[in-house]
Amino acid sequence: MTDVDGLKSRVAETVEGLADELWDLALRIHANPELAYKEEKAAAWLTEFLEKRGCRVERGVGGVATAFRAEVPGATPGPSIAILAEYDALPAIGHACGHNVIATSAVGAGAALAAAALAGVAGLPLPGRVVVVGTPAEEGGAGKVRLLEAGVFADVDAAMMIHPLCRTRLWRPSLGLTKVKVEYFGKAAHASAAPWRGVNALNAVIALFVLQYVLVGFLVAARMFTPALLVVVLALPTLKKVLPTYRRNRPLECPERYPRRLWPLWFVALAFMHNRQFGGLFLAGLAADTAIERLVL
Question: In the chain, pLDDT over 70 holds for what percent of residues?
Fold first, then answer.
């Protein structure tokens, strides 16, 4: 029978031994922010780190140049657990979302598990395998979607990720988004001479903003969620003194989990904000520990 507690101890000791290198790697990525699909330096540093510790690394997976996949095999066939690494930065503010820590935690977990696998005769002393997947372009580039559609996750049974925060949380709900486009059609009329003869499409857009803010205020007060308003008016007036007859909003985003029966109350989708606070904890040990638990289960 596998000594799971002993394996966890060895992995934790390996993470501690790699702490200085992981910290240096995180700072290096932080000092060199790269935007979506342009993470050449980060991808190179992360894959090199994994290869030096015995991981089998495949670069450019899914047809994405800065994506990668590293595998830590188990002793026998079994479930595949993926640990995801993000490493793209935000425009202007760099790694304000802590992707440098996310990436370093993922490769730290992979490297520690690889060390445990090398200590055995046939990989990890557990059925299954652990894969570290480098997923570029999280910030608006839908990198994971591209990898999913390309089949990179086809043989993965469960995926997990570590996100830095100011406190430790083992679980957090995930939210889906649905895009909605809202169009308003009115009737033209002279804006000062006979406005009552027209129907102002712009008034509908303004009402949308007001209604949205009022309803969101109630929902936030009820602690149901923390939304962000994503409404952009795309069609602007073309004639002066004429009531606007058409308005169009940029596709909005609605939470999939929110009851659809309430959508008519707002007519507009709300986007959920990520909690942008982050701490400096390295959670590679936690990621490795959780991966081991999934393999055991």
Answer: 66
Residues 201 and 115 in one domain: no
Asked if the model's pLDDT at residue 46 lies above 80, the reply is: yes
Question: Could you please report the per-residue DSSP string of 192-256?
Answer: TT-GGGSB-HHHHHHHHHHHHHHHHHHHHHTTS--EEE---B-----STTB---EEEBPPEEEET
pLDDT tens, position by position, 159-212: 999 888 888 887 777 666 666 777 878 888 887 788 888 888 877 777 777 776
pLDDT over 50 (residue 22): yes
Residues 145 and 287 in one domain: yes
Q: Which residues contact 192 (CB under 8 A, 6 or more apart)?
A: 241
- pLDDT tens digit sequence for 199-231: 888 777 777 777 766 666 666 666 655 555 555
Q: What is the pLDDT of residue 68?
A: 98
Yes or no: say if 32 and 39 are a contact pair by the CB < 8 Å rule: no
Same domain assignment for residues 198 and 149? no
User: Quick count: other Cβ atoms within 10 Å of Cβ 104?
Assistant: 33
CA distance 205 to 235: 11
pTM, rounded to two decimals: 0.66
Q: Which residue has the tokens 């993926």?
A: 82
Same domain, 109 and 249: no
Report how many domains make up the chain. 2
Burial of 74 (0-12, 13-18, 19+ CB in 10 A): buried
Cβ count within 10 A of residue 109: 31
CB 226 within 8 A of CB 272: yes
Nearest alpha-carbon partner for 255 in 268, 271, 241 = 271
| Same domain assignment for residues 109 and 133 | yes
> What is the DSSP track for 149-201?
HTTTTTT-SEEEE----SS--S------EEEE--EEE-B--BTTT-GGGSB-H
